[in-house]
Amino acid sequence: MNIKPASSTAFDLVSLGEVMLRLDPGEMRIHTTRGFRAWEGGGEYNVARGLRRCFGLRTAIVTALVDNPVGRLIEDLMLQGGVDLSFLRWVPYDGVGRELRNGLNFTERGFGPRGAVGCSDRGHTAISRLSSSDVDWGELFECRGARVLHTGGVFAALSTTTPEVIRAAIEAARNTGTLVSYDLNYRDSLWRSIGGRERAREVNRSLVSGVDVLFGNEEDFHAALGFELPGVDEQFRVLPAASFREMIGAVVEAFPNLTTVATTLRSARSASVNGWGAIAYHRGKFYEVAAREVEILDRVGGGDSFASGLLYGLLAGKDPEWALECGVAHGALAMSTPGDTSMATLGEVLRAMKGPNARIER
Questions:
Q1: Domain annotation covers residue 1
Q2: Structural domain tally of the chain?
Q3: Residue 34 buriedness (CB in 10 A; 0-12 / 13-18 / 19+)
Q4: C-alpha pair distances (Å), 312 with each of 13, 169, 260
Q5: Which residue, of 88, 116, 217, 251, has the greatest Cβ tally within 10 A?
Q6: Are residues 309 and 50 in contact, defined by beta-carbon separation less than 8 angstroms?
Q7: Which are the contacts of 358, defined by CB distance < 8 A and separation ≥ 6?
Q8: How many Cα atoms within 13 Å fall on the side-chain side of residue 196?
Q9: How does pLDDT run across 162-202, given as a tens digit for each residue?
Q10: What is the per-residue pLDDT across 55-74, written as a single tens digit (0 to 9) for each?
């Protein structure tokens, strides 16, 4: 792939998207708990953080926060994650949050027959009001430089203006030879009040035309882009790899600009045990990591960690099969720990790529 050398840029990857405060009740339920643990998280941000903390790459986030104690807590969590905050935009707090606020994401982990539950509280957040003129794209992509821009459908769904911010970022990135990565990340709750699937398809199809690397799952390709998945019902109960190959082939035919399209192969025997694998198209060839059962502690962020692992492989100059295996291993490890973001190390990922191994490290 035509990825700029690391020596020519300040960042290996820059993400564009919202960072929320995740409030986690641990083993309890959201509606019965009396205490929460705080984490930071966000679909686009999680990829940047995983690349920084697990793989040691240089990453940054383009985002916005309201300048109040909640915003400063999110900043503190991001500082611990090591992601560069030079392009974090602070906006004034009105004292109540009538105009702008910081997003909250209440997330409880599933267990056994009980699935995970997410309850977002993210209306009129600071990042949803971001305009393309609020970011100095020239400073980011021309002066400092990035090898990859990563963004996605979560940010695109936050308001009527965020797709235009993405469009400006993609244009600035492509003008400087920066690879563009996009995760469809369809969320029905985000699109429901602003046009639903029809609007999601309109927005995402217009943005994907400028993308190089595309991530998605079976629902994303169907709901966010409008492609039918052959042999699979509306509830996505059956996940044959052959159907994914056919669908991905249709996506690539519709968007010939895409060099890489990747999806996880996931099935749920229970909230605690999932089938986990992946398939990817890269420059005319398909690669697959067959699904095997993995035990889940917290599945939120598994797909983001898959994306960061695969992107690491591409940035490191590895072959597509290695990159796909890296993504699968990193995603599985991320789901073995709490919170949205990865706590894995590169050594653990490399060991997981060689096969199951849970021996104690002494």
A1: no
A2: 1
A3: exposed
A4: 10, 21, 14
A5: 217
A6: yes
A7: none
A8: 1
A9: 999 999 999 999 999 999 999 999 999 999 989 999 999 99
A10: 999 999 999 999 999 999 99
